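Reviewers of the previous submission asked for a worked example of the structure-prediction workflow described in the proposal, so we include one complete record here. The input consisted solely of the amino acid sequence. No template or homolog information was supplied to the procedure at any stage.
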Amino acid sequence: MNVVILAAGMGKRMQSALPKVLHPLAGKPLLSHVIATAHSLHAVSICVVYGHGGDQVLSSVAADDLQFALQEPQLGTGHAVAQAMPMLDDNVPTLVLYGDVPLTTTASLLRLMDVAGKDKLAILTAEMADPTGLGRIVREDDEIKRIVEQKDANEQERKITEINTGIMIAPTRPLKQWLSTLSNNNAQGEYYLTDIVARAVADGVKVVSAQPDAIWETLGVNSKVQLAELERVHQLNIARQLLEQGVTLLDPARIDVRGTLQCGRDVSIDVGCVFEGEVTLGDGVSIAAHCVIKNAHIAAGTVIKPFCHIENASVGAQSQIGPYARLRPGTELAEDVHIGNFVEIKNSQIAAHSKANHLAYVGDATIGSRVNIGAGTITCNYDGVNKSRTVIEDDAFIGSDTQLVAPVRVGKGATLGAGTTLTKDAPAGKLTVSRARQLTIDGWQRPVKIKK
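From that input alone, the workflow returned the following structure tokens.
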């Protein structure tokens, strides 16, 4: 099939300079969700009809397998679809989707395609207790005859509760003909796509319908309020899937997944956690409250304590991280590594059974096994121009308040005394100390304030 995605609207109610279809839902633009759904249907052609904020839309979603059609000015949904017609394959049906309706599922669209076949006009409809503002499906003897918009509906038609979601699929050659005959003689002065229903009936084309699995699949975004409501719907759907997979969520209403989260068995996630990009949690992983984890792999049995930030990093099995730890891009931790509170690791590899339990910065470093990093330790990796590497070999002990001025190497089994500033390599198996000699000044008195 062809897919046409309507994405030209300004979205005035969003109160934003950002085009409506580029506002994020679960970390990616509304329009990107719809494009992903179109890809899942294996469409032969996907055409995005854009208008307001055109350059931003193009730069945000441009891809080799997408086509774009400009709608300028915006004269209604029928006019929008007409802009895409020259780019479509006449031999397959055309499905119309909306760039601000992000959660329509592949399953519901496949159901719509199935009832449409190759020669019917099929509309995704839904029953709504309060259909105010929406187009109504007008049937006669249970057959769809036309769609009437709220502003054009009479009193009897406004009582109809079956509504048009806007999503439809039609045979492309007749669709082109129907679009060419549309009129803007209506309350909005626009060319309605819905008017093709009456054209199809007049041409003897059967008009059929299918329904989505859930009403939220049909909901669009016109304001920040609606965006926030749909975000919660989406996140609750994700939470429900995780629960069904056996993940323990302390509160399903307080988790945000902005990407893909894969979990092993017996994973536990506390409240307020945010997962971005591609995140994998191994068997038995425990994530405590208010952690932010982005593009990371956390191996089995690891405990992430509260308020940790982990980005573009991997954590080995049976490790303990946090609370208040930050693992920056390029961090690679082996098994049973302990990273404690207020410790920051960047672009460093730490081998098994090593520890940095509190108040340390480890950047651009390679650290061996069974190394102890004392409190207040800093790798001085940046001289204002270049970044250099620190190497600490197996079984080294780094005393508290130590600065390692890279490039520098600490040999296997070496000990650095507390307060050391290391500017040269420390030999293996020996104690290296760099500190001023302690003095006591007899007769010294602390200054006092003079009263005026």
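Residues 120 and 205 are 6 Å apart (CA to CA). We consider this example representative of the routine output the project will generate in years two and three.
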